[in-house]
């Protein structure tokens, strides 16, 4: 990625682009695109972390899909109830992160600096794995029992080693309810 191709956006300006380059994002899945993840991680280190004041430092963070959330457009019951999620993070001493109430830069910083990442399988996992650094020692992936995600995990794990992704220790739990 050539740094000169990036524009730092100013909220007060209106931009008209002649062309835009999109990063590949096939099937919401960066899991096995190691080179792309490394490029994104280096870009974050070189351009984002050095140019902003880091605000939050949470070691053990959590992003779990919520069925009750107004932006859950599919409403396919692949997530968990908000009360369950809040009890779960309290019992596990996790910091619940709501990506919809953060800037992407703040989210990147939180993820880049965390030590453990608990996340539900789906976009929350596949999109955000590129933001993790070697500071993260453990990824806990939660899958809703009986969901389409349960089938996806079984298919992926049949052909791939999902317990170690780019040096991250990854565990998976298929749960009917969060406890």
Structure, explained:
There is one protein chain. The protein is of the alpha/beta class and 179 residues long. The protein is 30% helix and 16% strand. It contains five helices and six strands; from the N terminus they run αβαβαβαβαββ. It has a six-stranded mixed sheet, sandwiched between helices. Strand 3 (116-120), helix 4 and strand 4 (138-144) form a beta-alpha-beta unit. It is globular. The model has no long low-confidence stretch (mean pLDDT 78).
The best one-word shape is globular
pLDDT average, as an integer?
Answer: 78
* Radius of gyration computed on alpha carbons: 17 Å
Instruction: Report the biggest beta sheet as strand number plus sense, adding barrel if it closes.
Output: 6 strands, mixed
Instruction: Count the beta strands.
Output: 6
Count of separate DSSP helical elements: 5
The percent range for strand residues is: 15-25%
Biggest sheet, spatial arrangement of strands: 2-1-3-4-6-5
Give the terminus-to-terminus CA distance: 43 Å
Written as H for each helix and E for each strand, in order along the chain, the element string is HEHEHEHEHEE
Sheet/helix structural class:
alpha/beta
Poorly predicted runs of 5 or more residues: none
Helix content: 25-40%
Outline the secondary-structure elements.
Blueprint: H1 34-48, E1 60-63, H2 82-92, E2 95-96, H3 104-113, E3 116-120, H4 123-128, E4 138-144, H5 148-159, E5 164-165, E6 168-175
Parallel strand pairs: 1-2, 1-3, 3-4, 4-6
Antiparallel strand pairs: 5-6
């Amino acid at each position: 990625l050539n740094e000169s191709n990036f524009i730092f956006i100013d909220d007060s300006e209106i931009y008209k682009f002649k062309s835009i380059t999109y990063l590949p994002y096939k099937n919401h899945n960066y899991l096995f695109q190691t080179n792309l993840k490394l490029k994104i991680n280096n870009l974050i280190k070189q351009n984002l972390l050095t140019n902003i004041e880091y605000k939050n430092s949470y070691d053990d963070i959590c992003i779990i899909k919520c069925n009750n959330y107004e932006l859950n457009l599919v409403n396919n019951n692949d997530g968990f109830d908000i009360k369950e999620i809040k009890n779960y993070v309290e019992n596990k001493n996790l910091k619940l992160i709501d990506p919809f109430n953060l800037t992407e830069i703040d989210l990147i910083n939180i993820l880049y600096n965390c030590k453990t990442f608990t996340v539900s399988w789906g976009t929350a996992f596949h999109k955000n794995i590129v933001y993790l650094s070697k500071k993260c020692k453990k990824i806990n992936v939660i899958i809703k029992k009986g969901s389409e995600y349960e089938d996806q995990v079984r298919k992926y794990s049949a052909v791939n080693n999902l317990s170690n992704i780019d040096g991250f220790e990854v565990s998976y739990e298929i749960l009917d309810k969060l406890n």
